[in-house]
Amino acid sequence: MTDATNPASLLAQGVDLERAGAWQEAFDFYLTAQDQAPGDARFSMRRCGAAIRLSDPTAAAQALMAARAIDAQGPLAEKLDQLEERIAQLRVTQDRILGVQAFEAGDFATAAHHLDALAAAVPDHPWAHAKARIAAGLAPGFAQRLQAEQPHVSARVFLSGCGRSGTWLLMAMLQGIEGMQTAPGEQPFGAFLDLPNDEAVHLVKRQHNAYLHFDKIPQGVKVIHVIRHPFDVLMSAHRGTAHHITLDRLEGEHSAYFQHLADRPDTCVVRFEDMVHTPDAVQSRIEAFLGVKSSRRFEDFYKHADLGDEIVEAMHGLRPLDKTSLHRWRGDREAEGFLRQQVANSTGVLTRFAQAFDYELDL
């Protein structure tokens, strides 16, 4: 007769459950069996394997820890190392799946948790860190997280504005502010977390779709919002593409401004035309707004700016301010015909924007 309490018999019973695909029953069985044979690490090891099959990395890690406590350097050590690798792979898979699911469901706090873990486990993952930063910036309590993780930062600035409105030009000018720390390229709100916790002004330049989330801009973050004559924006080409900014995009940007930024405290609107015509006045306004000083004149941005070759190419090169570059559509019948059609197709946002900022739409 087989002794049901014999370790070999117990192990055989558990393996039968595994072969039947009864992983939860096997997991529970091995937990009980371990109590009956406390000095045999195989039961915790098999329980770990069952937990992996059940996609429960926490239970698997606990079982692995129990097995190592019994047989840390024994004959099972190599197999335990293999189980540890499988647990790590399971965590990566779960963090990827749960992170994306939570992101798509709008549960950004949960998404940030899983995507941060994924980025830490796989540092060269193609999108984990970027998506984690988007989720972090949209999650409730992000302002509190910034304060808790970076208490020494003196000020945070979010640079926004529709494409082809001069945000990169202003970024080049702002690089002259002493001690400013800037996130590279265009980033979501969450990129503030990647900047060092020091007594400096932190600057993040918006991504192209940031206007969809203006309502999520963290409290305490100052906003510099760049605007430009809508006709210049609609006529601007980008990398050989004419009319790069569509009417829908432009009106979406302006609608979001009126809804979320127009009456928001700590928001400074800068006109592109003022940057070109009166850069010293723009500099004085921004210095007063941020409570900082620039080490050089904004007008001299082209001598010192470091934006990267790709951005400089998109700006058609770094060069002195050119007042003749404004409103080049004037007198161009084809361009004016296109712009008349845009005004006719507008939902009324263009007119509201023009009236608010004294732009003339009469062709």
What does this protein structure show overall?
With 363 residues, this protein is an alpha/beta fold. The protein has 17 helices and five strands. The chain has helices at residues 7-19, 23-36, 42-53, 57-71, 77-104, 108-121, 128-138, 142-149, 167-174, 230-235, 247-261, 272-277, 279-290, 301-304, 309-314, 333-345, 349-357, and strands at residues 155-161, 181-186, 201-205, 222-227, 267-271. A five-stranded parallel sheet has the order 2-3-1-4-5. The radius of gyration is 29 Å and the shape is elongated. The protein starts with 6 loop residues before the first helix and ends in a 6-residue tail after the last helix.
Query: How would a textbook summarize the main sheet?
Result: 5 strands, parallel
Report the end-to-end length measured between terminal Cα atoms. 101 Å
> What best-fitting shape do the alpha-carbon axes yield?
elongated
The spatial strand order of the largest sheet comes to: 2-3-1-4-5
Q: What's the helix-strand series?
A: HHHHHHHHEHEEEHHEHHHHHH
Counting DSSP H or I runs of 4 or more residues, the number of helices is 17
Strand portion: 5-15%
